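Internal QA ticket QA-208
Title: Verify multi-chain structure generation after dependency bump
Assignee: T.L.

Test input:
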Amino acid sequence: MDQNEIKAKLRKFICNEILNNAEYPLKDDEALITSGLMDSFSLAQVGVFAELEFNVYIPDPELTVDRMNTLDDMSARILEKMQA
Amino acid sequence: MTDFFSNLSITTLGFFAFVLITFGIYYLVPRKAQNLVLLLASLVFCITWNWTFALILVVFSIINYFLALQIDSSQDKARLRWLWTGIVLNVSALLFYKYFDQSQVIFFKALFRLGVTPTQLELSILQPIGISFYVLQAISYLVDIFRKQIAVNRNFLEVSLYLAYFPKLLAGPIERAQNFFDQLRADRVLDNQQLTDSLLKIFVGLSRKIIISDTILQTIPRGVFANPSAYSIMDLVFWWFAFGVMVYNDFAGYTSIARGVSGLFGIQLSPNFEQPFFSTSFLDFWNRWHMSLSNWLRDYIYLPVSRAMLRRNPSGRYLPNLIVPPLVTMLVSGIWHGAAIHFILWGLLNGAVQAWERVQKSRRKSAAPPLTKWAIIGTIFVLLIINVPFKLDIAGALAFWSGLFRWGPFQTFTLATTLKPFFVIALSFYLDVKQLPERDERGLLRLPKATQIFLLAAGLFLLFLATRQQIAAPFIYQEF
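Actual output:
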C-alpha cells in the first residue's frame, strides 16, 4: 500500500466520520487541527482507525498537532509505521 | 543572610542571587560537570525550604531510577507489574503528602507516644515543594519506557535532575523525559539571542506576577468571596473576572520566570500558556491554559481512555465515547489540584462543558469554528462561572452563584478600588495581544524601540516600588 492509498482511505474516514460531510473538499495539506476542524478526540479516532484499517499503532504522544495536522502528515506517519 | 536564602520563591532577591551564583559556577566548570552543578544547586534550592524535601527527592529519584531499569529489563506480565508498582508508589506518595493529615497516621502516632512532637517532625510543612509536579514526570517517564517510546536512562544524575531541576521544581512546567534528557546531553549554548530571550522572559514574568497579579490581589475586596451574598451581580462578575486575570498572571508569570532562568543554563522548558483569554471554545481553552499539564492529561489519561472506548465501539457519535473521556480526565485534574470536594466539582463541571462541546461538534456538519469575539466572550464567561469552585468551597460557590441572580448597583465601584485593577487588567491584555505574533514573550521584541524602552523603564520602576514594599505573595500553583 502506498501513501496515496492510505491518504484516500484516511480522507474518506475523516470526511465521513469526523467532519460529518462526505462532500468536504479536504486538501492534502489542509490544516485540520490548527484550523479547529479536528481536536484531540478526533486524533484518538484516527489512532484507532489506523489500528483497525492499517494494523499499525501510533503511540498517544505522537498524536499531536505538529505530527498529525494534515492528511500528508497522517499518511506519512502511518506509512512509516507500516514499513517499520 | 540565612533568611535571605530561606524558602527561595522565584520572585525573591535571594532566588536571583542564588541563580547568579549557580550561573557563575556553571559556566566556570567543564561541560561534563555542568549537570552535576545543576543537580547540586537543585538540592540546595530544596534545602532552603526544608532539608527533608531534598532527601525525599533523592529517595524518589533512586526508586524511580530502579523501577525504570526493572521495567526495561522485564517482559510481558512482569513488565506490567513493575509499571503498576511504580504508578502505585508514586501516586501513593502524592496522596500521602497531599491528602492525609499526617498527625493521624499510625506511624506518626507511634512516634508521638514515644515523645516526639508534631513540631519536631515539622508536619505542618511536610508536603514537599513541587511533589505534585515531579510525581507526574516520574509516572510519564515510567509509562514511556513501558510503551517502549523512549530508552531507559542509565545515568542516575540525569534521571535525578529530570525530577529535581530547580527552575521548574516549584510548579512545573511538567517536562517529558526524552526532551529533557536530549537537552542534558547537548552542548549548552548561551548566545546573545538566548540571553535576550531569557532576560525578557524573566522581566515579563516578574511584571505579570508582581505588577499585575499582586496588584489585583491587594485590591479585591475580601468580602466579595467571603460573603458574596452581600454583593450584587456587577460586583461579583467584575471581581471574579479580576481574580481570573490574577490567577492567570500569577501562573503565567511564574512560568515565564522559570523558563527564562532555565534558558540561562541553555535548557529550554516547555511553554505553559498561550493567551488563554482569547480561547474560542472550552477545548481550545485547555490547549492554551497550563499546557504542560493538559498535554500530560491528554497523553496519559484522555487518549488512552478514548482509544480504549473507541476500540469497543468505533463510532464518533456514540455518546459514552464523547462524554466519558473528558469527564474522567477533568476528574483526575480536579483530584490532582486538591483534596477537597470543590476541586472534584470543579473538575466535573469542566469535563461536562467539554463533553457538551464534543457532542455538539459531533452533530454538526464540518466548518471551522467561528473565530468571533462573541465566541471568545461566551467561552470566557462560562469558564469563569464554572471555575468558581476552584477558589471557593461548595457552600461558598453556591452562595457566589446565587449572587449572580441578585441584581443591584455596583457597590464596590469607586475610583480608588477599581482604577488599579482596571489598569493592570488592561496591561495583561496588552501583553497578550503583543505576544500573539510569536505566541510568547518574543512578540514584544516586535514593538518599536521607543515603546520597548518605555515598557522596560516603566516595568523596572514599578518592580522596584513593589520590591521596596515587599508585597510579593506566594505563587498560587506552588500550593498544589
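Spot checks passed. The first helix of chain B runs from residue 13 to 28.
Status: verified.
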